[in-house]
């Protein structure tokens, strides 16, 4: 691709936005409170735009006008809660669909199945 002033504007805008958001923005650092660990989960949205044009000039030199901009939205959506060896997800926003509710219930379901299988195994052990 030919290097143009618009390319430089786009690269500069995108680079600055990358510097503002990293992995720990989405899955935050764990927070320990007593025997409970909370891990924040956020949704990150971003967009950017840039444009420019060559301007006519009577002096024979090239003139260019351009601009770029962008925006970032970081929204907390949930916490992963680890307590007493069990993991669950607590959503901050209301569920928007039944699929959201089903996904949020998966960690709790796995914990209950693990307990059930453990209890079943203990019942099958012969008494001493």
Short note summarizing the structure:
The chain has helices at residues 5-20, 23-26, 98-124; strands at residues 31-33, 36-55, 63-83, 86-91. It is of the alpha+beta class and 128 residues long.
Can you describe what's shown?
With 128 residues, this protein is an alpha+beta fold. It contains three helices and four strands. It has helices at 5-20, 23-26, 98-124; strands spanning 31-33, 36-55, 63-83, 86-91. The protein has a four-stranded antiparallel beta sheet with strand order 1-2-3-4, covered by helices on one side. The radius of gyration is 26 Å and the shape is rod-shaped.
Shape: rod-shaped
Physical arrangement of strands within the biggest beta sheet: 1-2-3-4
Ends apart, CA distance between termini: 78 Å
Q: Structural class of the helix and strand makeup?
A: alpha+beta
Number of strands: 4
Number of helices: 3
One letter per element, helices H and strands E, the order comes to HHEEEEH
Could you tell me the radius of gyration in angstroms? 26 Å
Proportion in helices = 25-40%
Keywords:
128 residues; 4-stranded antiparallel β-sheet; 4 strands; 39% strand; alpha+beta; rod-shaped
Blueprint (SSEs and pairs):
Blueprint: H1 5-20, H2 23-26, E1 31-33, E2 36-55, E3 63-83, E4 86-91, H3 98-124
Antiparallel strand pairs: 1-2, 2-3, 3-4
């Amino acid at each position: 691709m030919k290097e143009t002033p618009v390319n430089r504007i786009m690269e500069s805008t995108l680079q600055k936005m990358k510097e503002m958001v990293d992995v720990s923005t989405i899955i935050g650092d764990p927070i320990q409170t007593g025997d409970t660990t909370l891990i924040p989960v956020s949704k990150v949205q971003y967009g950017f735009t840039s444009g420019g044009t060559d301007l006519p000039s009577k002096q024979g030199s090239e003139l260019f006008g351009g601009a770029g901009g962008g925006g970032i939205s970081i929204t907390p959506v949930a916490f992963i809660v680890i307590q007493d060896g069990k993991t669950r997800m607590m959503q901050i926003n209301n569920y928007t669909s039944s699929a959201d509710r089903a996904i949020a219930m998966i960690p709790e379901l796995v914990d209950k199945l693990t307990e059930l299988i453990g209890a079943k195994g203990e019942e099958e052990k012969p008494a001493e």
